[in-house]
Amino acid sequence: MSDNQKLIDVTMPQLAESLVSATIGKWLKKPGDQVEQYEPLCEVITDKVNAELPSTIDGVMGELLAEEGQTVSVGEVICRIAVPEVSSNATGTGETPVPSSHSSGREHQAATQGAAVSATGEVSAVSENAPMRSRYSPAVQSLAAEHRIDLTAVAGTGNGGRITRKDVLAFLAAGGSAAAAVASAGVSAPARQTAASATPVQAFETVQTELEEPVRQSGLHLSESPRIPTIEVEGGRGSSSEYLIDVTPIRNTIASRMRQSVTEIPHAWTMIEVDVTNLVILRNKLKDEFKRKEGINLTYLAFLMKAVVSAIKDYPIINSVWAVDKIIVKRDINITLAVGTEDSVMVPVIKKADQKNVAGLAREIDELALKTREGKLRLEDMQGGTFTVNNTGSFGSILSYPIINYPQAAILTFESIVKKPVVINDMIAVRSMANICLSLDHRILDGVICGRFLQRVKDNVEGYTPETKLY
């Protein structure tokens, strides 16, 4: 490193509130490589997601402090980036220094394109183009709303000029009355309006920018397609009777979660048989028109999910988690959908599924399944699930014993639809039948409540008629 450069630590970010660590999957930059802002530094594995972690500054990649496959705690330094040192006599003339193209957002959130009030109450220049300038966390927005603070008047000391809660508190401590000075200092009304109307987003969420070509923003960008496990033929033994498969970080995460589920949760299992003849008739009647109108397939899973959601509303204890000294019942019904890829199972979530009709659920299922198989799931797509549904019948299964998606209380599978002879009113009829299987956490749920829940799901599924509406 030259004398006019300094090293900036890059730490593992808090990707989500509930996450405390992540695994380095693969380094995309090596020491000495030029790094541009928003360019991915490494692949990160967390919550079964293979993602890319972008740089927030321009510079040259320095030392790598975390190895591939290493699990790193939030806040721990994973690498360092060398950036130009600002000359100490840059301010000797009394002029405002202009940041270099390789300066970090923390050091140079003050530029000459606007003005804001710093913690001392002085008007300082702030760049409207600072990458994180107008991105406010919920805590910052709440504090600003409580004290009626115009956030365009606050100088940000966070990465990329982002305003932190500490900045807002410092602004309040300094009087917090200098917002009017900002307008007189040259901040245009459109600029203030844009910043004030910016919607709050989670850190590391993809944002849109007006640039000549698409760039990687401060979001988690996934690989274009799911990875297939690397197979290495074992050598040195003179035999081709076996081969080795590397355990990927995603597979390792799945193994850990499954082990945690079966170790901590006392699983119980039950099954019910459902007559889906009317559902088959209904779907066959509507699927072609739905395909022309919506451009997607109308699957049985959308109807099943609607039946499950309605049953959960009748038996909300199903939508809960174990918390040692209490049971937490979730008010929102967020259905986790198990989607298989070549080498793993992803679990995207349909948020507030109880507020969607069959058509809406079909659209969500198709969108999430497509994003999963193309490797384009975002972190928020995987969070907040309260109950899991798996369509195991899609690959021919007629009976399954699913492992609960920890820490949820239950998981339900929908098996293959099979034509069977069934006795109805002492006569034999050929009907379309399917099994619905439920694994449950026996600490929370007992046979009676789960039996009633499954019976309600059965009633809802068998309640579909050729006149049932999708919208």
Largest sheet: 7 strands, mixed
The rounded distance between the terminal residues' Cα atoms is 63 Å
Q: Class of the largest domain in CATH?
A: Alpha Beta
Rg, alpha carbons: 28 Å
CATH architecture grouping of the largest domain: 2-Layer Sandwich
Percent range of helical residues: 10-25%
What is the typical, i.e. mean, pLDDT?
Answer: 77
Number of helices: 9
Q: How much of the polypeptide forms β-strand, as a percent range?
A: 15-25%
- State the CATH topology of the largest domain: Chloramphenicol Acetyltransferase
Shape: elongated
Q: Tally the structural domains.
A: 3
The stretches of 5 or more residues where confidence is low (pLDDT under 50) are 90-129, 177-228
The CATH superfamily of the largest domain appears as Chloramphenicol acetyltransferase-like domain
- Kindly name the structural category: alpha+beta
Tally of strands: 24
Tell me what you see in this structure.
- It is a single chain.
- With 471 residues, this protein is α+β, with helices and mostly antiparallel strands.
- The chain folds into three domains: 85 residues, OB fold (Dihydrolipoamide Acetyltransferase, E2P) (Beta Barrel); 111 residues, no CATH class; 211 residues, Chloramphenicol acetyltransferase-like domain (Chloramphenicol Acetyltransferase).
- It has nine helices and 24 strands.
- The strands form seven sheets. Strands 14, 17, 20, 21, 22, 23 and 24 form a seven-stranded mixed beta sheet that branches. The chain has a five-stranded antiparallel beta sheet with strand order 7-2-4-5-11.
- Helix 1 packs parallel to helix 2.
- It starts with a strand and ends in a 9-residue tail after the last helix.
- About 20% of the residues have low confidence.
